Amino acid sequence: MNIILLGPPGSGKGTQGEYLEKSLNIKRISTGDILRNEIEAGSEIGKTVQDIISKGYLVSDEIIMEIIGSNLVLEEYVNGFILDGFPRNLDQAKLLEALLEKLNKKISLVLFFAISDQVLIERICNRYYCAKCGASYNKIFKLPIVSDQCDVCGSKDFKVREDDNIESVSSRMQQYRAKTEPLALYYQNKDILRSINSDQAVDKISKDIEILVKNG
Ligand code: AMP
């Protein structure tokens, strides 16, 4: 199955993406995670995007398509993939379609995370992640099972995203409303969009997704 996770920052794409990776045994490609790794590694791409990301703007389509193009051809995605944070505008959606056609693949399902502004802000203000493996947590909704220890890799080193501050979040929301949200209609017209009520508890969202994925 080839899945796109579509929704505003903080709507639960990362958490549910990690859940889907395990339940469907297919891998996730998070453009945000890849870019953060590039920044961490101090690479050329990292240096180019650091300021753009910290201000909450979108990175160029050129850089993003290079990342997507070089990942989608990898062996680990032959049985499917979950795209998290991509596409983020109509041009990226069309470039993805052209790329997939070349690879003889198709998007099977777009999961749209519908969430109210109040829940969204609460999620973003309380989220953090494992500095070693990137697993995501939330001080209110999703604490590690063993206190201060990552469930996935056992690391005790956690971080808060640099762009999870009020200025950057409001700029990311503006970018989302103007450029990304219109993609919901684009995929709805292709009849592959399914909406999830992301105001609900994490487990309930996972259950709803499970049903949607089963029904295709
Ligand atoms: P995310 O982790 O998906 O919220 O992404 C963090 C930041 O990385 C975004 O605010 C953008 O600056 C950048 N980014 C991630 N994915 C994309 C994309 N598909 N197109 C443009 N910029 C992106």
Summary keywords:
216 residues, alpha/beta, 5-stranded parallel sheet, 3-stranded antiparallel sheet, binds adenosine monophosphate
Structural features, described:
The chain is an alpha/beta fold. Helices cover 50% and strands 15% of the residues. It is built from nine helices and eight strands. Helix 1 (13-24) packs across helix 9 (202-215) and helix 4 (61-72) runs parallel beside helix 5. The protein is globular, with a radius of gyration of 16 Å. The N and C termini lie close together (9 Å). The mean pLDDT is 94. It binds adenosine monophosphate. Adenosine monophosphate (AMP) is lined by residues 9, 31-32, 35, 52-53, 56-59, 64, 85-86, 88, 92, 163, 172.
